[in-house]
Design a protein that fits this description.
The protein is mostly helical and about 350 residues long. The protein has helices spanning about 1-15, 20-25, 40-45, 75-85, 90-105, 140-150, 160-175, 205-215, 220-230, 250-260, 280-285, 295, 305-315, 315-330, and strands at about 55, 235, 265-270, 330-335. The protein has 14 helices and 4 strands. The longest helix is centred in the first third of the chain and has 16 residues, at about 1-15. About 45% of the residues are buried.
Length: about 350
């Protein structure tokens, strides 16, 4: 009990103070790669104690699922995404990340959107360390849902809207180079818990940890490398990489150091070359040691370097693999009990009734 209380205290200190706290006392919990590892990590963060994880099945999903059920649904979502990406490409990156963070916790059930659950708990996935104050794109999902409910009441799940929005954001951000086949037919979950977000691979993860996180969801090492390529877009907080300036390309590190200016909450582009384009530039950045996270840099290792090099060198190679990996990730299913089609994406229907 005392160990658990100390662990909780250290997590709180590290979360509030950022990497500086860890450097000062040399204690930093891993939280599956979301905090810098330390020699005490095995004591405070035992592996294998979390809830059972789902695996891809895709049962009940089909392509063109809404063609007759709600023919305008996918166009409504696509239009909402295009409008958002045209105004701010970063929202598109946020929608792809939202999909990833949804599917890796409880399967693709839109649990990541909830702030009002069946258990009426306030510590939802949105409050988890990997998600708090960093997820984006909720307003796009809500806009699409409102329009769809007006056209086809109680027909299209929020989980499908998240999946289709990630598909469409990938298309627009890649200038049409990425076309993901995304089935529909998901249902929305009624539970969401912050502590379950420790299943998400974090920026301080090593290769073995990344492989284990993805394998737990039925995804291969190659698919892990492929999906990591989404780090070619979007922004990241300095607190998650400022400890490794000395490990980066010197000129790149100097530029980042100036942008961060000692503030761990400052956001910078993840890809300094083509920051608003979903392309294979990420893999050249890995090879050039011009990436932010430890989890990016470790891909330039003997275990995964061949895949990184292939993605960097072969035109169209990564784009095709990304399409398939996103499609497969969209089939991760979790606990199927008590699922529904929400009327509003951020709260369950009939709170507490079942």
């Amino acid at each position: 009990m005392a160990t658990n209380k100390l662990a909780a205290l250290v997590v709180l200190v590290a979360f509030l103070a950022g990497p500086a706290a860890c450097e000062g006392i040399n204690i930093c919990l891993n939280f599956n790669g979301w905090l810098k590892p330390s020699i005490l990590d095995p004591l405070f963060c035992p592996r294998g104690s979390g809830p059972p994880v789902p695996s891809p099945s895709g049962s009940g999903l089909s392509y063109g699922y809404y063609n007759t059920r709600c023919p305008t649904a996918e166009k409504i979502i696509k239009d909402a995404v295009k409008k958002a990406v045209d105004e701010n490409p970063g929202i598109g990156a946020g929608l792809i990340r939202l999909f990833f963070h949804d599917c890796f916790v409880r399967g693709c059930d839109a649990s990541v959107l909830l702030n009002t659950t069946n258990s009426q708990n306030s510590d939802t996935e949105r409050e988890g360390l990997p998600n708090k104050d960093s997820l984006r794109g909720f307003e796009v999902i809500d806009e699409a849902k409102t329009a769809i409910e007006a056209a086809c009441n109680n027909t299209v799940s929020c989980a499908d809207i998240v999946a289709f929005a990630a598909r469409d954001a990938s298309y627009f951000l890649s200038n049409g180079s990425i076309n993901i086949r995304m089935p529909g037919g998901r249902y929305d979950g009624r539970q969401s818990f912050a502590n379950e977000t420790d299943q998400l691979p974090g920026p301080f993860s090593n290769v073995a940890q990344l492989q284990a996180s993805f394998a737990a969801k039925g995804l291969t090492s190659d698919e892990m490398v492929t999906l990591s390529g989404a780090h070619t877009i979007g922004r990241a907080r300095c607190m998650f990489f400022s400890s490794r300036f000395s490990e980066m390309d010197p000129a790149y590190a100097a530029k980042l150091r100036a942008e961060c200016n000692g503030n761990g909450n400052t956001n910078v582009n993840q890809d300094d070359v083509t920051s608003n384009v979903l392309d294979k530039q990420y893999y050249q950045n890995v090879l050039d040691n011009k990436v932010l996270f430890t989890s990016d840099a470790v891909l330039n290792s003997t275990v995964t370097r061949a895949q990184v090099t292939e993605n960097a060198d072969k035109a169209g190679e990564w784009e095709r693999k990304f399409e398939k990996a996103m499609e497969k990730m969209g089939k991760i299913k979790g606990d199927q009990q008590g699922l529904e089609i929400r009327k509003v994406c951020w709260r369950v229907n009939n709170v507490g009734q079942y």
